[in-house]
Amino acid sequence: LDVYGAPVIGEHERWLGVVIVFHDITELKKLEQVRKDFVANVSHELRTPVTSIKGFSETLLDGAYQDTDTLLSFLEIIQTESNRLEMLINDLLNLSNMERSAFHIELEPTDMKAVIERAVETVHPKLAEKNISLELDLAPVIVNGDGNRLIQVIVNLLINACTYSQENTKVSLKLYAEGDQAIVEVEDQGIGIEASEIGRLFERFYRVDRARSRNSGGTGLGLSIVKHIIEAHHGNVEVESEVGVGTTFTVHLPLAEEI
Ligand code: ADP
């Protein structure tokens, strides 16, 4: 709270009273804090892979390269960390692009079933690695949207469903129309999310279990990207979850106008 006070002085320097202005800056301070946290998070997230790339390459140059096994395993780490860095930079650029006030996407009639099929192709190897079966129930639905961005939404949700599930479980994906909306449900049988965490999931870099989630290979930005894209489509996304049972993300998107 900012408080300003000033005397009100009338004729012959007579004090008439005092004006006090209370200015509530809670919201400003909160925004400022969010911005500071974001910069701190970005720095930390970028520094981690860079430190590792520097460390391992220095050790190799100091002589460790002479042992072939060490050479190979360190090169693998350097490659993994470089990929991670690339992913982070891409996600950050994507987000900052979407957060510009001028951000605008071209909405056109888009075959949502085809969008989902493309996303499934991308994620398939990751699901297969954990032997997670995917059950699809897709109605033909045309939404008002940007196909490539929507593919990214479904990919992010499917990757999370896979990352936060055990091996040999099932993920199901439904697409149907209801009223003037298209509805996509991505349901997993994974670890679930505590009710108290759900409100913060879509924040940049927010992770329920920091250590475990970072090791899972994500950037902590996936869901904030999902939220931005869906909101740019005038849609919304909801989460329902039960710890130890599973999680369902439900996306609502406006259907394309009938022609
Ligand atoms: P990350 O790269 O860490 O997965 P996201 O923004 O995609 O970042 O997700 C934020 C956090 O939400 C994750 O770290 C994880 O804790 C939680 N989360 C997301 N999807 C799921 C899911 N399907 N099941 C359980 N937890 C999830």
From TrEMBL:
Domain Histidine kinase: 41-257
Topology within the bilayer: Multi-pass membrane protein
The UniProt record lists the keyword Membrane: yes
Subcellular location field: Cell membrane
Keyword Electron transport: no
GO molecular function: ATP binding; phosphoprotein phosphatase activity; phosphorelay sensor kinase activity
Domain of life: Bacteria
Cellular component aspect of the GO annotation: plasma membrane
Catalytic reaction(s) noted: ATP + protein L-histidine = ADP + protein N-phospho-L-histidine
Entry protein name: histidine kinase
Organism: Planococcus rifietoensis
Full-protein interval shown: 208 to 466 of 466
